[in-house]
Amino acid sequence: MSVQSPPAALTEVPGPVKKIEPAEKWRRLLMAPTVVPLLLWMIVPLALTIYFSFIHYSLESPAGNFGFVGIQNYQFLWSDSRFGTAILNTVIFLVSVLVITVVVGILLAVLYDQDFPGKNVAMLLVIAPFFVMPTVSAQIWHLLLMDPIYGVIGQFLQAIGLQPVDWLQTYPLPSIILIVSWEWIPFSFLILVTAIKSLDAEQKEAAAIDGAGPFTQFRYIVLPHLEKAIGVVVMIEMIFLLSIFAEIFTTTKGGPGDASTTLAYLVYSLGINQFDAGIASAGGILAVVLANIVSFFLVRMLAKNLQQNA
Amino acid sequence: MNKSSAWAKLGLAVLGWFIAALFFFPIFWIAVTAFKSEGDASTASLIFQPTLDAFAQVFTGTDYFLNVRNSIFVAFGSTILCFILAIPSAYRMAFYPTQKTQSLLLWMLSTKMMPAVGVLIPIYFIWQWLHLFDTVIGLVIVNALMNLPIAVWMAYTYFSEVPKGILEAGRIDGATAGQELWHLLRPMTMPGLSSTALLLIILAWNEAFWSLNLTAHDAAPLTAFIASQTGSQGQFLAQLSAASLLAVAPIMVMGWFTQKQLVSGLTFGAVK
Fold it and tell me: pLDDT for A248-258, tens place per residue?
């Protein structure tokens, strides 16, 4: 990056001085269209979130806005009963979706790694949900499938003589976990089935000749081979799932009560609905901290990958 | 082939198709409901008189075309902007790498890991201050910035696959950098870059977090329009399905064509 190169006086060290050819100066400028916008996009909003989280900034009670309040926003959040629920919901949601998508993704990858008639078309149908926009996914499940009276599931239950259930009201969080899993299983499946294809067929055959059954082969050959891909799926999903919003916004609006309020939805409802930017920002910072812990590991893994390829 | 393996294969096919049908059912169901009358739409029956009424209702009764137009502008606009910002640096990093290139690339990828919710509040205010709130331009910028690391990464990957000798030969023949890009690199990297473009269009088309938070009416794309349909008490289900089907179908077909790029693009090459 051109802006970071130190002044000439500092670089004048004894020994062979490496001269920068004129063209190289221009080439450095080529980085600017990517680096400058990304730098702004990353630093300005994040700095503002941190700043907001330490000031009083409410559009509803604007008296004393922009006054420094120390960690009061964090304390308020901590003592708010919704916060504990939101953290708990976020953890339950994250862990459930991750476990469901990875486990089902592995099973599907093994299944569709085999050959059968029409396999390619069947695979297209399985990955299709990933391309459905989140609000449409939410509406399909909400209004067409899970509605107690007009939904397919409810009518099916009635047809076989059972009581229909208002899923999103009775089991709000599990219902949202189901909807989001339906969207993200195709993602983990697609990654894992790509990874499983690179497994050496000879290795499996050799193991089969040595008398390893399908389960032994799966446990000791397939699963270790998928380890890295599973890690990638978990980390990437984690970052996306932390900001899952549209599915909740379109179906339960975080309710009933706060039964399906996650950290992301709480930040939205504090900041955009209740106009308290200070407290909402404190919540946002917590989400950033969580994501940073995850991305630290992801970036480390990608770095290893880059070095191997170089 | 012996008998037991033939049975195993049949079992496999039945299972594979059953699961595929299960996953696809919700999408199949909006496709069915879209062709029902509103009266039929509130029952789960598969026997009905198909009609295009719901589509007609969508086209006449609402601002649907405004939302479609916004979605198209955002998807294509952000992809074009993304390419303008990404190509120069991808070119630089692929053909003139320095010691800093790798860490720079990783830094770009790491910006993708910021959760949107962490910057929701400031972006919301900044967009209002800059009068970008509820504008198509505002959404174009957000989507372009969100997808920029993916675009740089993929363009860099495709550029790196070009044999260095070809560019040198061009330079000996006196080609300028611009000619080099247009006449040598463009045709060679076109297939890769166009599937990258498809992936970016899909991502921007389906983006919901910022679309819901940064638009009110004028710039609302399809994601926001669909979310605003309440359709309670079994009303307007056919209309909702018709609008949803139109919003989803073209992108799904595009998605099927970009599967491979999707895997390497979304995992930044960690899985190929």
Answer: 998 888 878 88
Closest in A52, A119, A271 to B16, CB measured: A119
> The tokens of A107 are what?
């099973």
Amino acid identity, position A82: R
Q: Could you tell me if B185 lies within 8 Å of chain A, comparing CB atoms? A: no
Question: B89 or A308: which carries more pLDDT confidence?
Answer: B89
Burial class, B227, CB count within 10 angstroms (exposed 0-12 / middle 13-18 / buried 19+) = buried
Q: Give the CB-side neighbour count of residue B197, counting CA atoms within 13 A.
A: 14
Q: Contacts of residue A122 in chain B, CB cutoff 8 Å?
A: 16-17, 19-20
* CA B213 and chain centroid, separation: 19
Contact A288, A46 (CB under 8 A): yes
Task: Please identify among residues 48-107 of chain B the ones whose CB lies closer than 8 Å to any CB of chain A.
Answer: 84-86, 88-89, 91-93, 96, 100, 102, 104-106
Residues A52-100: tens digit of each pLDDT: 888 888 877 777 778 788 788 888 888 888 888 988 998 899 999 999 9
CB A143, CB A59: distance < 8 Å: no
pTM: 0.85
Structure tokens at A250: 């379109």
Flag whether residue B140 sits within 8 Å of chain A, measured between CB atoms: no
Handedness of CA B4, B10, B16, B22 (dihedral sign): negative
Distance from the B16 Cα atom to the nearest Cα atom in chain A, whole angstroms: 7
Establish, for the pair of chains A and B, how many residue pairs have beta carbons separated by less than 8 Å: 302
A46 contact B CB<8A? yes
What distance in Å separates the CA atoms of residue A145 and residue A168, rounded to the nearest whole number? Answer: 11
Q: Which two tokens stand for residue A243?
A: 């900001």
Nearest to B55 by CA among B228, B224, B239: B239
- Most B CBs within 10 A among A116, A237, A240, hence the mutation to make, goes to A116
Q: What angle do CA B219, B134, B84 make, to 5 degrees?
A: 75
Cα distance between residue B100 and residue B113, in whole Å: 21
Q: Give the Cα separation of A287 and A239 in Å (integer).
A: 10
